[in-house]
Amino acid sequence: MLKTLGAQIKEFKKDSVLTPVFMIGEVIMETIIPLLMASIIDNGVTAGNMNHIYLIGVLMLGTALLSLTFGILGGQFGSRASAGFARNLRKAMYENIQTFSFSNIDKFSTSGLVTRLTTDVTNIQNAYQMILRMCMRAPATLICAMFMSFMISPKLASVYLVAVVILAFVLGLIVSQATKHFSQAFPKYDALNESVQENVSAIRVVKAYVREDYEVEKFRTASNNIYKIFCKAEGIVIWNNPVMNFTVYTCILAISWMGAHMIVQDTLTTGQLMNMLTYCMNILMSLMMLSMIFVMITMSMASAKRICEVLEEQPELHNPQEPVGQVKDGSIRFDHVSFSYKKDAQDSVLKEIDLEIKSGETIGIIGGTGSAKSSLVNLVSRLYDVTEGRLLVGGVDVRDYDMETLRNQVAVVLQNNVLFSGTILENLRWGDRDATEEECRRACEMACADEFIQKMPEGYNTYIEQGGTNVSGGQKQRLCIARALLKKPKVLILDDSTSAVDTATDAKIRKAFAEAIPGTTKLIIAQRISSVEHADRIIVMHDGEVNGFASHEELLKTNEIYREVYDAQMSGSGDFDE
User: Fold this and answer.
1) What is the spatial distance between Cα 4 and Cα 304, in angstroms, rounded to a whole number?
2) Cβ contact 409:417 at 8 Å
3) Which of 19, 95, 295, 501 has its CA 20 to 30 A from that of 549?
4) What is the residue-wise DSSP string for 76-121?
């Protein structure tokens, strides 16, 4: 874990080294100041020597300015190092997430990834800054003050030593109890973020069903869970202050009592007693800082583990050593393919799929919910790898292609595809970043999107809100189809992507495909038989297996499932699930 996190310090190594150096310099200056103060009292005030007071006063001022300078520089370099460390962590996680296959993404919830990129990184940033500054300052102060105390009076310094041992034990007990609760708090942030994310993204549904009170209560519950855990943890941590104050004042009383007797006996000067009291505060406050450091580090350990889970997650799909860089055509061959989402799963989602699709064919895919239609087409663009068998596109196993090349030639349009915030043109150019406005217009004409875009106030420069909330479901689907067409793919997959458009528009889109992209292999998943009946052939999926594969007319004669659904839909009721 330390190696994984340490790799993200990179260009901030210099700042990370200079910060503790300046912090130690500040501590040394602060340790010298009480000695100068003692000299003023013993050799200046007591002796009535004004020259000595002026001289040592100037030295004290210089020492204080140096201490201030070191402190400012330490804070500046520490802030830069911790902020840079946090920046690199976010960047590294985000970049690694982009390499994940679908199977990797399935391991993490969206809200969990958001929490890791925000709250967890902030915890690590704060902990790292505290390690660079306080973790150096506190031990250095403790060591320097103890050393100077024993130099002045070993007898009085022994009081500190006893106090340090007792205080260290008590504070260690407090920290160990508090960290149990802190480690439970951060996973609760996932539930809180999930509640917020769901509510904001689906706010129209919430209002349509008048579920505001339910969502408010759901958020309150998630927030209250975090509140309770932190209250328990902080309820333990607050004992730091009374324990510390008790120890400090006990030490001050003990040192004052013993020191007064030693002054009377001429074994200690007044200045030295002032020194001892100052060092007493330094020692005990450094212990207080150390206890808070331990709490912060323990809090951040849970965050560090969660961040490392993302950084150390390796994508399950890789390019071969010598990848194929060109897809010859859109032919597809399923060679006894089986597939399961988990490697150790007993039952396969797809079982012994053996199909051959010619380049340029239009293939319909129909089946009930859970029949693995989407799983079948997800394998074509290698979003997942087959568990058994081979899948060939253009005569080459998909595992032998460069993944970027393959996915550029296999365009997928999902039922719930996503539009991003930006203009319509910017969204369309996800398909081809160099596409001209005329090319975008032609793609939209094929997808029957141009007609509604022209009616918008700013046409193709109309701004799309995040998630496409200012366009209808059918308009969103047509824009996503146009975006996919701009890729000029060898294979076009429509995963129930015309479910929100009317049958007339659906027919226009299919006609445009047949005329404009005859050489592109088209895989069309649909629930309506009318959407696929004109396809060259139709795959009937049932329980992860191919139940039938033929033309519409042949399936009506030979496939019982297809015939029953066709009759039900023609009579105005029924679908594959029924």
Assistant:
1) 10
2) no
3) 501
4) HHHHHHHHHHHHHHHHHHHHHHHH--HHHHTTS-HHHHHHIIIIIH
| Bridging pattern class, strands 422-423 and 491-495 | unpaired
Task: Extract the tokens encoding 39.
Answer: 């000299």
How far apart (Å, rounded) are the C-alpha atoms in residues 167 and 165?
Answer: 6
Q: What is the 3-state secondary structure (H, E, C) of 416-480?
A: CCCCCCEEHHHHHCCCCCCCCHHHHHHHHHHCCCHHHHCCCCCHHHCEECHHHCCCCHHHHHHHH
Q: Identify the pLDDT of residue 356.
A: 92
Low-confidence ranges of the chain (pLDDT < 50): 578
Number of H helices, E strands in the chain: 20, 12
The separation between CA 447 and the C-alpha centre of its own chain, rounded to angstroms, equals 35
Q: What is the pLDDT of residue 238?
A: 77
CA 216/CA 197 separation, integer angstroms: 13
Q: What is the 3-state composition of the chain as percent helix, strand, coil, each rounded to the nearest 5?
A: 65, 10, 25
- Confirm if 512 and 445 have CB atoms less than 8 A apart: yes
Dihedral (CA of 33, 35, 41, 46) sign: negative
Tokens of 441: 């217009």
Q: Which of 371, 311, 399 is nearest to 539 (CA)?
A: 371
Question: 532 to each of 216, 337, 364, 502, 553, how far by Cα in Å?
Answer: 44, 24, 5, 14, 12
Which residues does 110 contact at the CB level (< 8 Å), separation at least 6? 194, 197
In tens, the pLDDT along 381-421 reads: 888 888 899 999 999 999 999 988 898 888 888 777 788 88
Sign of the CA dihedral running 485, 381, 357, 493? negative
For 24, the token pair is 């130690």
- DSSP 3-state assignment of 344? coil
Among 36, 30, 38, 48, smallest CA distance to 259 is for: 38
Predicted local distance difference test score (pLDDT) of residue 187: 66
Q: State how far the Cα of 241 lies from the Cα of 248, in Å rounded to an integer.
A: 10
Spatial CA neighbour of 437 closest among 204, 518, 445: 445
Closest CA to 404 of 310, 332, 327: 327
DSSP letter (8 states) at residue 324: B
Quote the crossing angle between the two packed helices 121-152 and 154-201, to the nearest 10°.
Answer: 170
Decide: helix, strand or coil at residue 350. strand
Alpha helix stretches (DSSP H) within 344-411: 373-378, 403-409
Q: Which helix (H) or strand (E) holds 496?
A: none
The answer for residues whose C-beta is within 8 angstroms of residue 380's C-beta and 6 or more apart is 332, 391, 393, 398, 410, 491, 493, 523
Tell me, what's the pLDDT at 49?
80
User: What is the spatial distance between Cα 126 and Cα 299, in angstroms, rounded to a whole number?
Assistant: 10
Using DSSP's 3-state secondary structure scheme, residue 222 falls into helix
Nearest to 354 by CA among 549, 554, 561, 491: 549
Query: Is 401:382 a contact under the CB 8 Å cutoff?
Result: yes
Q: Length of the chain in residues, anyone? A: 578
CA distances, 271 to each of 57, 159, 405 (Å): 15, 18, 79
CA 567 to chain centre: 49
Structure token digits, residue 476: 């969103």
The Cα 392–Cα 375 span in angstroms is: 16
